[in-house]
Design a protein that fits this description.
The complex is a heterodimer of chains A (about 300) and B (about 725). Chain A has 17 helices and no strands. Chain A is mainly α and about 300 residues long. Chain A has a single domain, classed as Tetratricopeptide repeat domain (Serine Threonine Protein Phosphatase 5, Tetratricopeptide repeat). In chain A, helix 9 runs antiparallel to helix 12. In chain B, about 55% of the residues lie in helices and about 10% in strands. Chain B contains 29 helices and 16 strands. In chain B, the strands form five sheets. Chain B has a five-stranded antiparallel beta sheet, with no helix packed on it. In chain B, strands 9-10-16-12-13 form a five-stranded antiparallel beta sheet, with no helix packed on it. In chain B, helix 7 runs parallel beside helix 9 and helix 7 crosses helix 21. Chain B is elongated and about 105 Å long. Chains A and B meet through helix 2 and helix 3 of A and helix 17 and helix 19 of B.
Chain lengths: ~300, ~725
């Protein structure tokens, strides 16, 4: 027994263990960890965050720069490795994964972000966009519903206070003037995609209710919501209501080709063939003149702000 | 039949092969295709600057191009200019390589020389050529190599390795060659960069040595005494040379405390009279964990860059296999030594560092504590592995049961490590290949005793070759990634101030951003005179730029302003208003020529050669000017003032005044004059040349002693 103990105590492993044990007593590993984090993150810092914060801007849509998104991926992977509770880092990582074609990882990261910070609008919104683009409208509805219920003031607060948002927005002037309109556009987009999802699921009643809500709370592109309400009503064969909504849309935007088109369908269904033909002709003319300016159904972008 | 010549047998082929492999791995850098970065660039330029000037007959003690002039001793000490091995660069250049190429190949050869020193040290310590060779390979192919192109640390660790080799060799076997080697390496260490790193390492070594080897001290000192008794003159010279080599560092230290210089980037908000004092923020930021990247030890090699910690994967296998080897005093000594230095390198995260800061005067001068990792912790860790490997090599399985158990142990270790690698993200294929080859190699090795064929296969030469493959295979891929991720080269050429033309005005142009080239703020300076720092922080950028474009300005009057803050305001206003007054530091110089009653309205900037003003000679350290004014003039030379500047008018010494805050001013009498301004005296230059000669002589004595005492026993292939 004694010789066995002696044998064990004279092994090389004991030396390394003893030194490691001594280091636990002497070295402040917490400070070391902080230093390593700072150094590693600084080392992996991307060349700029413009591509990330400008996501979703339709002109130009800057989402395609693979090299930049690889940098974001590398950086945010390090951030979440060291600071796994940082919801915004998971959120940014999810966006980066998505634009690098790693959809499963993107969903996992965004879900994690949404769990860590359930008050933030953009996490469920981005999840909704991913599912919407996949054609999984049920899941898209789930996340868009989640998103639209988030408090925009909370989103504003999170963007201006959280670590990674602050880093990404360093040097951005007039931050308040940028975030607020973009948030409003985000809520508007959320309602649009949610209505489109309901339309795809043929839940026209909910689509109408949402369109009414969007109009009542003053979201951007009111004419578009009237239009969607008109489309949903048409599918419910409530032509009177549909005509009303479409007329409202046309009143706001007299060049709204798609609204004219659906209006013609309603008129035809109501037996007013001549008038329907005139309205259809107007729709075709507007389309030929390039007035088909509303976002296309497949248009949906992930966004950071 | 062809018979191999005896001389060929003497060539240490495994070492040459390893070096060639290393050269192949870093061919992008050595060919100049890939760029040196950060400090490596500045040091390359400094060494070139020194050598070019030296071989043009100018010993560079002043650089007029570095922020309007600066004493160059600081840079000389940083590069350790007395080291005669720098002449290799000159030689390679004369042999036809460009300066850049010559410097890069010097780096490679110098690094290899350091690795040979390490091998010899390892061989002395572990007493096994094969284990020492493994240590040599692990260090050669570690990322210490990458520091050549990233830092200047090779100037530090190469003499360290040789110092410790000669120290151990001299202690074990006192010979003249070892004494001269110890002396020469000490001299290089004491005159290169800041020797405080070495002092810390060496003092720690001594304390531990006394603690661990108390009983041997008497024998060791008796051995030293016997050597000194038999070789009195050599012992005297060695001690004298080491003492002499302390003087340049001491002089720099005193100059740094004189208050005439500034190192703003280093000092920041540090308190203390010496410019080398480092602020707390810099100390905390210079520790091992803040500066060295350890996240690519096992994986992520495709993102590997210069200066990231890395050792070939075979090192971990030796470490794991060696966990079961027997501990000995030597291993404990080395491990504790490295551990203490590691703790020091972690700076403020341990109470040890606070203690040292409080009680050891020079700790406030150590900024780059992470150097301890590269120059000691990593090499000593590899020495430990070498010792473990020696024990592993000594294993002999005389019974079948032993061979089976050893085989199982080998399998277990390799399997565990392979699984560990598998769980990492982004492990290179060569890592797995190494694990596999190592498994095969070890499995065969443990069975060699019972198998004559295997015994032959593991002949000393074959074993060394197989080690090159085992160690080198992964670095081959890793350094390919390093090269891929490196910057492509930019020209490493700098116009030498010793060039043959003299410009009366400084180049003045706008940069791309529209900012003025001269408008550098004091806080952005790396190293300058203190007064330039004050000046740049105190006056308007545009005003300064407009003023400093002229190297010479002639005034009629001077005014003494002792308070620099007042002087700054007066100087700024005066230049804007084109007042014909130069501001000098003390009242002494004002009455020299009582000013001039017929002063012209404005100061006269010198825009070029004229009948009244001509620069007739110049070099880095001085300037000769011919003047011919019809009344006394005060000449301001917009090159920084330093108290070691001397002025001679027509051969007569005349005072040099600190003028317009930062520059030099001299009164000139009316009529034709020859003004000579010179930095330091001929004696100072004589001393410098003496040191260059002394170091070369010591190196020569080392070579002679080596030839005489035939050290060919040390390296064999």
């Amino acid at each position: 027994m004694k010789s066995a103990v002696k044998f064990i105590l004279t092994r090389g492993a004991v030396l390394y263990l003893a030194l490691f044990g001594a280091s636990l007593l002497i070295v402040d590993y917490k400070v070391i960890r902080e230093r390593v984090i700072i150094r590693t993150l600084n080392h992996n810092m991307p060349g700029g965050f413009t591509h990330l914060i400008r996501l979703g801007e339709r002109e130009p849509n800057t989402a395609a720069d693979k090299e930049m998104f690889e940098q974001y991926e590398r950086y945010y992977e390090k951030v979440v490795q060291f600071l796994p509770q940082l919801a915004d880092a998971h959120g940014f990582l999810g966006i980066s994964y998505y634009y690098l074609g790693k959809e499963k990882k993107a969903i996992a990261s965004l879900e994690k972000a949404a769990v860590l910070n359930p008050y933030f609008f953009w996490f469920p919104y981005n999840l909704g966009v991913i599912y919407y683009k996949k054609g999984d409208h049920e899941k898209a509805v789930k996340y868009f519903e989640m998103a639209r219920k988030k408090n925009p003031e909370m989103a504003m607060l999170i963007i201006t206070k959280s670590i990674e948002y602050q880093r990404a927005l360093t040097g951005v002037v007039n931050l308040g003037e940028i975030i607020l309109p973009r948030l409003k556009a985000g809520y508007s987009e959320c309602h649009r995609l949610l209505i489109l999802s309901y339309l795809a699921l043929k839940d026209y009643g909910k689509a109408i209710a949402l369109a009414n809500e969007a109009v009542s709370i003053g979201l951007n592109s009111q004419e578009m919501f009237y239009y969607y309400a008109g489309v949903a009503s048409y599918h419910l064969e409530d032509y009177q209501k549909s005509i009303y909504f479409l007329q409202q849309a046309i009143e706001i935007d007299p060049d709204y080709a798609e609204a004219y088109y659906f209006l013609s369908l309603n008129l035809k269904a109501a037996g007013k063939d001549e008038m329907a033909a005139q309205v259809l002709a107007k729709a075709v003319t507007l389309q030929q003149q390039g007035h088909e300016k509303k976002p296309k159904e497949e248009e949906a972008y992930l966004r950071a702000i | 039949m062809f018979k191999k010549p005896a001389a060929l047998k003497q060539i240490p082929w495994p070492f040459l092969l390893s070096f060639l492999l290393w050269v192949f791995m870093f061919r992008g850098f050595l060919s100049g295709e890939l760029s040196l970065v950060l400090d490596a660039v500045q040091y390359a330029l400094s060494i070139k600057f020194y050598l070019v000037n030296l071989f043009h007959g100018v010993y560079p003690l002043w650089d007029p191009d570095w922020y309007y002039g600066i004493p160059w001793e600081f840079f000389l000490r940083r590069i350790g200019n007395y080291n005669p091995l720098y002449f290799v660069i000159f030689l390679l250049n004369k042999l036809g390589l460009s300066w850049h190429g010559a410097y890069l190949w010097f780096l490679a050869v110098y690094y290899f020389l350091g690795m040979v020193g390490f091998y010899l040290l390892a061989k002395r310590l572990v007493k096994d050529e094969r284990a020492a060779f493994l240590g040599f390979l692990l260090l050669l192919f570690s990322s210490l190599s990458t520091m050549l192109f990233f830092s200047y640390i090779q100037l530090i660790f190469v003499p360290y390795f040789w110092f410790f080799y000669f120290l151990v060799a001299f202690t074990q076997e006192p010979k003249q060659v070892h004494a001269w080697g110890l002396t020469f390496s000490s001299m290089v260490i004491l005159t290169t960069y800041i020797p405080f790193y070495f002092i810390t390492i060496f003092v720690t070594f001594l304390i531990l040595f006394v603690f661990f080897y108390m009983k041997s001290l008497r024998t060791i000192f008796s051995r030293y005494g016997q050597f000194a008794g038999k070789n009195r003159f050599v012992a005297f010279l060695c001690c004298l040379f080491i003492l002499l080599s302390l003087i340049p560092g001491y002089r720099l230290y005193k100059d740094a405390a004189s208050g005439e210089l500034a190192l703003p980037a280093r000092q920041q908000e540090a308190q203390g009279g010496n410019i080398f004092t480092v602020s707390e923020r810099n100390i905390a930021g210079g520790d091992i964990t803040s500066q060295v990247y350890f996240d690519k030890l096992f994986s992520g090699h495709d993102e590997m860059e210069l200066g990231v910690a890395y050792v070939p994967v075979f090192a971990y296998l030796v470490l794991l296999l060696g966990l079961g080897t027997t501990l000995n005093k030597k291993m404990v000594f080395m491990a504790v030594w490295a551990f203490i230095i590691l703790l020091i390198g972690l700076t403020t995260t341990t109470p040890l560092y606070d203690f040292l800061m409080e009680h050891v005067f020079y700790f406030k001068y150590i900024r780059q504590s992470y150097y301890f990792f590269w120059v000691l912790v990593l090499p000593v860790f590899i020495l430990l592995l070498s010792e473990q490997f020696r024990q592993l090599l000594a294993f002999e399985a005389h019974r079948r049961k032993d061979a089976v158990l050893a085989g199982l142990y080998v399998f277990l270790i390799h399997a565990v490590f392979a699984v560990f690698l598998f769980l990492q993200k982004g492990v290179s294929i060569t890592s797995y290949a190494t694990v596999f080859l190592s498994f095969v190699w070890c499995s065969l090795y443990v069975r060699r005793t019972a198998n004559a064929g295997l015994e032959k296969f593991f002949s000393p030469r074959n074993l060394l070759i197989s080690l090159i493959i085992l160690v080198g295979i992964q670095p081959l891929q890793t350094y390919l990634f390093v090269s891929r991720n490196a910057f492509h080269a930019v020209a490493l050429e700098k116009e030498m101030p010793a060039s043959l033309t003299f410009e009366y005005q400084r180049a003045y142009h706008k940069s791309e951003e529209g900012e003025n080239k001269f408008s550098i703020k004091g806080r952005q300076l790396y190293y300058s005179t203190r007064w330039l720092y004050v000046l740049l922080n105190g006056v308007d950028d545009d005003m300064f730029s407009e003023y400093a474009r002229y190297k010479f300005i002639v005034y009629d009057k001077t005014k003494a302003v002792e308070d620099d803050r007042v002087a700054l305001k007066e100087f700024e206003r005066s230049w804007r208003d084109r007042e014909n007054i130069a501001y000098i530091e003390s009242a002494e110089g004002v009455d020299h020529f009582s000013g001039s009653a017929n002063a012209s309205l404005e100061p006269q900037p010198i825009e070029g050669e004229s009948g009244q003003f001509k620069v007739s000679d110049f070099d880095l350290n001085g300037i000769k000017i011919e003047t011919g004014y019809n009344k006394p003039k005060f000449l301001v030379y917009n090159d920084n003032y330093h108290s070691d500047w001397q002025a001679f008018v027509n051969g007569q010494r005349t005072p040099v005044r600190r003028t317009n805050i930062s520059f030099k001013g001299v009164w000139l009498p009316e009529g034709k004059n020859t003004l000579v301004l010179r930095f330091r005296s001929p004696i100072d230059y004589g001393i410098e040349y003496f040191y260059v000669g002394l170091f070369s002589l010591t190196f020569l004595l080392l070579i002679i002693a080596a030839i005489k005492e035939n050290p060919s026993y040390e390296i064999s292939g």
